[in-house]
Amino acid sequence: MQRDKSLDWMRAVLTILVVIGHSTFITISTKYGGMDYQSELISNGFSCGYVYVIASEIKAVIYKFHMPAFIALSGILYGRQYRSGKFDSLISLAKSKFNRLMIPFFMCWVFWNIPLKMISGYYLPINNNLWLMLVQMLNPYQVHLWYLEALFFIFVLHYIICKYVSRTSFRLLICAICYVGGVFIRYKYGAPLGNPLLYIIWFEVGFDRINEKADKLPIWFEVILFSICYIVSNYIQYSWVVFDVFLGFFGLDIVYKLSRRKTDISNSSKLLKLSMVYSFEIYLLSDSLNYVILYTWVQVFGITALCSNIMYGILLFIRISFTFFLPIILSVIYVRLKRIVLIAKQ
């Protein structure tokens, strides 16, 4: 199967957006723990500066489309595999995706996510209860690894849907119904098993390349539509239930169209090349580092340093840089050590 290099560009850009989006927070709250520096600042009469406000707004925009785009990208790639007959049964699909998604999910959670979050004090509200840390895997709300868990069940569920429903319009309708159920689940329960019902609609969009049917819409027009939907969803209560669908579609379609203009990532910057080659490693390892960096910053400079535009700007730069490059460095070291071990065994 010929490699679509434009999709490499799309994955590289989305990975960078993930790193930026994950590097802005100063508050994460779940029933299993978290950190809430913003509430602590407010309770002591302090407020964050405009750099934090701008960064938070950029994050909010990114969050409206970057995961729908990532899941649609998986749908595009899977659609090609499915039509080529790569997976002849549900068992073969589940086995392949379990090895690719769930094993890294479990390994990263236990040996990376938990230790780093313990260092940052994330689990202090539950007294560092190891059992609850593991139970959180079943409902990884506000934990970046939810994507791997959700994507595994999306693959399985979509395979079952395709087995019994051949028409694209019917599959899209089923996925739309799943989205409604996913909205209810998120509102009531968070993200059990990553809440695959909420995101399967984007997988179907990629699987059937539904966004290609919107090719006649120019990018500038979609940017305007995205902006209108974003403004409306922020000012009308609960309107996000509907407008998040439009925001996700317009956002992923804009990125997809831009990627099709970049047919060869080899002509792109080194940053994009690194993002493409190590996208999975960056996604696995980057976010947990944010907790340690943020915790260390507050311990060294004090919590009020988060109010300073200059200090928060420096912190933001450090978080983006470290969480992008450190996973790459660790991956390179791991590969080289593995190679040394293999040579030593010969």
What is the succession of H and E elements? HEEHHHHHHHHHHHHH
| Domain module count | 1
Mean pLDDT, all residues: 91
Outline the low-pLDDT stretches: none
Q: Distance between the terminal alpha carbons, to the nearest Å?
A: 34 Å
Multimeric status of the protein: single chain
Task: Give the count of helical stretches.
Answer: 14
Q: Which structural class best describes the helix and strand composition?
A: mainly alpha
Instruction: Supply Rg.
Output: 21 Å
Biggest pleated sheet: 2 strands, antiparallel
- Percentage of β-strand residues: under 5%
- Find the count of extended strands (DSSP E, 2+ residues): 2
Sheet with the most strands: spatial strand order: 1-2
Overall outline: globular
Please give the share of residues in helix: over 70%
Describe this structure in words.
The protein has one domain (5-345). The protein is built from 14 helices and two strands. It has helices at residues 5-22, 37-43, 50-63, 66-83, 90-120, 130-135, 146-164, 168-189, 196-207, 219-235, 240-261, 270-277, 279-301, 309-345; strands at residues 27-30, 33-36. It has a two-stranded antiparallel sheet. A hairpin with a 2-residue loop joins strand 1 (27-30) and strand 2 (33-36). Helix 1 (5-22) runs antiparallel to helix 4, helix 5 runs antiparallel to helix 7 (146-164) and helix 7 crosses helix 9 (196-207). It is globular. The relative contact order is 0.15.
